[in-house]
Amino acid sequence: MDYLDSLNEPQREAVTYTEGPLMIIAGAGSGKTRVLTYRIAYLMQLGVEPFHILALTFTNKAAREMRQRIEKVVGNEARNLWMGTFHSVFSKILRIEAEKLGYTSNFTIYDTDDSKSLIKQILKELNLDDKIYKPSVVLNRISGAKNRLISWQAYLNNPIFYAEDAAEMKPEMGRIYKTYCERCFQANAMDFDDLLFNTNVLFRDHIDVLHKYQHKFRYVLIDEFQDTNLSQYLITKKLAAVNQNICVVGDDAQSIYAFRGADIQNILNFAKDYPDLKTVKLEQNYRSTKTIVHVANKVIENNKDQLKKLVWTDNEQGTHIVVLKAATDNDEGQQVAYSLFEEKMQNHYHNKDFAILYRTNYQSRAFEEALRRQGIKYKVYGGLSFYQRKEIKDLLAYLRFVINPKDEEAFRRIINLPKRGIGDTTVQKIVIAAHENNLSLWEVVSEASKYLGKGRSISPIEDFALMIKEFQIVVEKKDAFEATSHIAKGSGLLRELFEDKTVEGRARYENVQELLNAVKEFVDNPEKEDKSLIAFLQEVALITTADENESKDGDDDYVSLMTIHSAKGLEFKVVYIVGLEEDLFPSQMMLSSRADLEEERRLFYVAITRAEKKLFISYALQRYRFGNLRMCEPSRFIDEIDVQYLTTKNNRFSTLKGEDTLTNFGKPLVRKADDFSPSKPSIKTYPLQNQKNPQREHTPSANFVASNPAKLREGMKVEHQKFGFGRVLKIDNQGTDKRATILFDNAGEKTLLLSFAKLMII
Ligand code: ATP
Ligand code: MG
């Protein structure tokens, strides 16, 4: 057990305290995940069978990595551990127990598109306006209810929900929720939230099943506990009720999924639910430099809602946080790419040592272009994934339908694909016949002449039914790969793509081939116990953003581009947090309440704490958003970084390409640090093409910028956008960045970097 020597005292204590409830709430990079990993290895070495251990992680990738580490200690046995995300573990259990809930084990997992399409369908049938009942909003509401374990029956019976919906002019929400659940059930389908909701129902209504799993999972471990929702919490609470061997690790400062129902209360409830709870604190950070740890601590101090904890490190002091100021979003891309290249060369780093983190997916474009030009390999996580492409979803829909012919969403997708003369009117007829006879669409289709009468439109339906029946036989007899190839060909999908000789057509054809490769790999993988097509489809349905784009060619040396949300738990030598602008990060949508702003700040904290050696932050002065060029302001979060650890790189602005709209090449627009020195004119603005009056966009902070900070002297009264009124105590002219120490009436003493501070002299 050499690994015990590689742990500090409290870590070792957490690993070896195996019996009874244990909670580790500790700061970023303090070894929480490491403790969990070694704890599992330790349990196994004590003789606990791997199938008695259940470990829940935030992504499937995290589970895989953990398993590999454990394998190094205990060998092949690690394969038999129950490990994965809540959704993947409990969908496996639901498949085994499906009949108990009235489903069959071949149930489909609906993705968000399926759910939305079903909601649209329901709105149409109920004659409701999809502008009032926006499908995404409806879906969120349903999802929120399910994650709080509110069934449609409870929803309809609770006048509070009715009043809320009425106030939002959506009185029919309850009815939609009910219909949605009924239709999913009829289609033998569960959406993501159902996987957790139904597990709760299963454990509530079938005590024998609960007992079985309580005895099976003698040890339950949960990583990233701060991001569990009520539904997840209750599942684990039930499972651990007998043995009480539950170990949770998390960091309240990294809770970033409240919008999906994650509830920090779970941490607080945990102590109440387990009076014998042992808590272990981990305070030493092993990941980052002193500078980064200090800056992260300072930033999170601005949040009122947090459990106070100390995080410190013995690592080197490290270099300053560097701020890159860019003229435009494209310029930001270039500056980051140049800087990244420079860092890579100077320090002999690999591409995989770098991550570029942003608030929203669409920001990746500028960085992708710049990295491509620079010849640096990168991978974008998230966005439109392979499995969301149309041609892939089409083929998957065939597979789904063959396996579960009640799957209505798959049916609608493939009934006339490739075109076989079954138009909307015919589909409508099928739907009506199904409703009238209380049958599924497939039951009508498979006996078309009985339910739809004879007619010209019948024969393509009969052909379709015959084809599906034949596919069903193939799926029974052949392995997943052979069955998928057969269906790709037999359905005519592959031929249709093959005949499309355009560039896009070729790419689509190759994508389908790639899907076939994926099935082949799945079938050939010795680690997969269940090689059925159902198992493959289940795995695909549960792929999360962070699991995508796994390198297949074995070459994993690429820069990672991802949202901060997907970067949780990861670490990189050098991190660029980009787009640090007001309304972008913090996001415009998160400024309405303190709680929302605090969630954004936690997100910033997560981003900072991904960095091991060096952290860069960048922002652009203007950027295209929603099709318009907008002036941007540096984010308030930059103000929150302790200035003594901040360096602003006065980069020459990289050469602008034609598409940029600045006319003054090589010059910044506003607020370069030098602008504040007395020898230079204070604020420069330059005319923009394409925009009549860019200044208008700049309000309300225009006043703050337009004052003349060059005149800033000690003793002056100033107003700061965030801190309010104050008096300048000291101006520090030394160093690269000019800074002022100001005593604010309400916010106390602050030292601010003048190139960022939104100050107005009054
Ligand atoms: P996060 O909050 O970001 O999820 P974490 O608390 O889970 O972080 P880990 O990822 O487990 O932290 O650890 C951070 C880094 O520190 C890892 O590279 C890990 O290997 C290293 N580390 C943790 N504990 C020790 C130790 N005792 N000695 C050396 N390295 C350690
Ligand atoms: Mg971790």
Automatic annotation (TrEMBL):
GO terms for molecular function: 3'-5' DNA helicase activity; ATP binding; ATP hydrolysis activity; DNA binding. Residues 5-289 form the UvrD-like helicase ATP-binding domain. Residues 290-569 form the UvrD-like helicase C-terminal domain. Its EC number is 5.6.2.4. GO terms for biological process: recombinational repair. Residues 679-693 have a biased composition (Polar residues). It catalyses: Couples ATP hydrolysis with the unwinding of duplex DNA by translocating in the 3'-5' direction; ATP + H2O = ADP + phosphate + H(+). Belongs to the helicase family. UvrD subfamily. This is DNA 3'-5' helicase.
